[in-house]
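Appendix B. One record, verbatim.
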Amino acid sequence: MRAANVFLLLIFGLGIVPAASAQIVKKEDDEVIRVETQLIDVPVVVTDKTGRPLLGLKPVNFLVYEDGKKQDITDFATTAAPFEVALLLDTSGSTRADLQLIQSAAQSFIGSLRPGDRVSIIAYRSDGAAGQERAVSEVLLNLTDQRDTLKTVLDGVTTSHGTPYYDSLVQVVEKVFDKKPEDQFRGRRALVALTDGVDSNSLAEFEAVKKQLEKAGLICYFIQVDTRDYFEDQVLGDCHSSLWFSRQQIKRYYNKFYPQANFERIYDFCKIGQFERLDISKKLYQLADNEMNDLARASGGKVFPIADLRGAKAAFDKVAQEIGTKYSLGYYSGNETRDGAFRKISVQLKGLPPGTIIRAKEGYLAPKN
């Protein structure tokens, strides 16, 4: 009887990491198959009904279900475990005049993190000859816990004349978190973005970016700056004003909100009337709201809206508190089906007072042959 060992590495989304547990499966003809299953991480925050974090909880306080079936918690990290954070700073559009506020708030955020937490910095800049500048995203510093180095890099952050927001999210996955995490950071990686979420010139599209973030298992926090009024004032003026809609933005507007409309699509900003400019602005901000809330909710993160950049420091303080009060649960899924389907995760609490609130990742994508 011929025997074969087949090693299957399952790499799939929303927090599955390269910690493996081997299972031996015998088929009817006695052929042996060795399957490598992956630990699925579920970051959670637990608060009382007033919003105050509950610390000192233990694995016995949690129940984890996948598609309604109870799972065995095999890994548990307390709130004291360190985090890795990709700090994304949107320095475009209306934020250009407030660069110092951004730098100061970001510095305060880094100072609020704990020893052992590591941070990477991503920001925008303008590239190209005068009159032909294009905004690009750049990873200014890879993950480090060296506070002096982080401060120096923050002091050198510049501004841009566009918002490659989706492209910067891709960089977070492909350049900052491109390697598997060390054991102490497993399930404890976060994106923290200060932005209005309105993209202007990315090559990437949101749906593709969303899948990448899900597969990377990042907890997504957004400090959402409200720039609507400023932007609308600018786009209703002369078509050669400092702010305008790029071809990519206009295309996204038509495809998302009027995919079947029977009218001519105009991609030249200067040829678009003021009524339609205003509609584009409102719709793109609506789209940004939906996208940020979608990413935050699904990952167990949160959106912190602020009226202007003067509120950035307080919002960053709340994010730092969230990061410092996260638990991480881990389990090996009992479902070995490789169908690429979305699997829903539900986390429940036991032995805690009524009114206790839990926020956790909602699920992940199963592997697919």
